[in-house]
Task: inverse folding
């Protein structure tokens, strides 16, 4: 099935998705990688409020390549980064913030349970940074630029961002895990 | 008489090859991706490869980097022993990197390993990594290979026992299996066998510069085994997990058998230029 969804996402938007479906997103996404995840969790521990609202949000595992032109930021290239680096921090993040979707590449380890009935993981083709940049219509804001360009949180307005493959749905089904299990079986036969 | 090479020529040559490497893939790599796209029958795998081909086209037309991870920059310099250089080659390369970072632009990726402070210009202690090799003649050949972290992080090295030659194949396959979809497959696998702990890794890295479609029987057999795993483009399943395998060897200690596996994403970016030469 193919879906076109508008952000902020509701629980019912994501619960209708199944692993393998195709999704296109329109609305605002927040980029966040290792350092931004760590800071979001740190701020929650210190009871500090975030400078952006993650309710119904989409987190894009991406460290974009940006250019500042006459005081305004523009996107040059913005493909997904390896999502697995954020695997360990994601269950904690989901306990604090109602993020509805993560966009990245390569899959995530042991997060299907934490995503259950809460969020989905959507895969964009890794390395396709020029292709992704075309769907980004505007740079709304940047937060935490002190972390450096790749690690800062960029608030990006996207239109028909995709095709994104539902890699992990909110019903505990994980495409990457299935492929990995089959690959291990194939390897054991080679030995 | 050898043609003199000046500082400014090197600086602009470095900017040029960086722009070429970042915005256009070598034709042999594109051909291998096209071939894989035509051979995939699984729709998800085919779509991933088609997205990659579309991305390559957009990046080329708009002259923007293929991937936002413009990598850390690795230079291979073949220095002719008769070449005349009356300036610091390293300073010229660094200057080229800084200009390219600003003008192409490239993402500033170089950080201090512990404080994680970003230098902002892709230079820093030990970065860019410049490998020199002395050659005959009076020219210098500079190759740049930007290396993204997604694939580099999935690379591995193992010090095998000398009697474990049969484990080399397993180690390569296990490294690819463990990497799954993380290094942006379809990948190119560089294997370094022998040398020492660091030499094996250098062999594996330089193997990534080989032409994608130029493989010997041993490399093709390993490629076939890798592709039988079914990891597929982006780890979503399919026939194409790797586009190529390249193996390089060096003599090693009688008590050692180092094996390094350097994984490269589909964006196997590199470009070269030759300067100087005889008049």
Result:
């Amino acid at each position: 099935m193919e879906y076109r969804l508008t952000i902020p996402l509701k629980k019912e938007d994501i619960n209708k998705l199944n692993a393998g479906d195709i999704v296109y997103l329109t609305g605002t996404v927040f980029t966040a990688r290792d350092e931004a995840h760590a800071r979001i969790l740190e701020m929650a521990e210190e009871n500090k409020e975030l400078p952006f609202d993650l309710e119904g949000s989409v987190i894009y595992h991406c460290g974009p390549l940006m250019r500042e032109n006459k005081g305004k930021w523009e996107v040059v290239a913005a493909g997904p980064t390896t999502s697995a680096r954020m695997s360990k921090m994601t269950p904690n993040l989901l306990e604090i913030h109602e993020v509805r979707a993560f966009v990245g590449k390569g899959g995530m380890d042991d997060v299907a349970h934490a995503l259950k009935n809460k969020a989905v993981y959507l895969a964009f083709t890794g390395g396709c940074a020029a292709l992704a940049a075309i769907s980004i219509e505007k740079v709304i804001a940047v937060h935490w630029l002190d972390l450096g360009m790749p690690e800062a949180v960029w608030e990006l307005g996207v239109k028909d961002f995709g095709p994104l493959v539902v890699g992990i749905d909110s019903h505990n089904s994980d495409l990457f895990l299935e492929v990995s299990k089959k690959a291990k079986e194939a390897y054991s036969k080679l030995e | 008489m050898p043609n003199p090479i000046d500082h400014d020529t090197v600086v602009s040559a470095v900017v040029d090859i960086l722009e070429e490497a970042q915005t256009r893939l070598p034709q042999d790599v594109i051909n291998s991706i096209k071939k894989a796209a035509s051979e995939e029958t699984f729709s998800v795998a085919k779509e991933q490869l088609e997205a990659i081909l579309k991305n390559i086209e957009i990046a080329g037309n708009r002259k923007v980097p293929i991937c936002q991870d413009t990598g850390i920059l690795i230079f291979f310099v073949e220095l002719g022993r008769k070449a005349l250089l009356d300036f610091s080659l390293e300073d010229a390369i660094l200057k080229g990197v800084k200009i390219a970072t600003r003008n192409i632009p490239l993402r500033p990726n170089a950080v201090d390993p512990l404080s994680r402070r970003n230098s902002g210009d892709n230079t820093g202690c030990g970065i860019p990594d410049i490998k020199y090799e002395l050659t005959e003649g009076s020219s210098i050949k500079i190759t740049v290979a930007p290396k993204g972290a997604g694939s580099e992080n999935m690379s591995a090295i193992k010090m095998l026992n000398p009697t474990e030659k049969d484990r080399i194949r397993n180690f390569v396959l296990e490294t690819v299996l463990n990497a799954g979809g993380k290094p942006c497959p379809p990948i190119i696998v560089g294997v370094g066998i022998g040398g020492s702990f660091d030499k094996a890794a250098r062999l594996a890295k330089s193997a990534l510069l080989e032409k994608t479609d130029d493989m010997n029987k041993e490399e093709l057999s390993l490629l076939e085994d890798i592709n039988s795993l079914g990891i597929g483009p982006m780890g979503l399943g399919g026939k194409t997990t790797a586009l190529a395998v390249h193996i390089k060897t060096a003599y090693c200690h009688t008590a050692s058998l180092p094996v390094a596996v350097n994984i490269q994403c589909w964006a196997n970016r590199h470009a070269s230029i030759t300067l100087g030469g005889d008049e």
Notes: Chain A touches chain B through 46 residues (CB under 8 Å). The first strand of chain A starts at residue 2 and ends at 6.
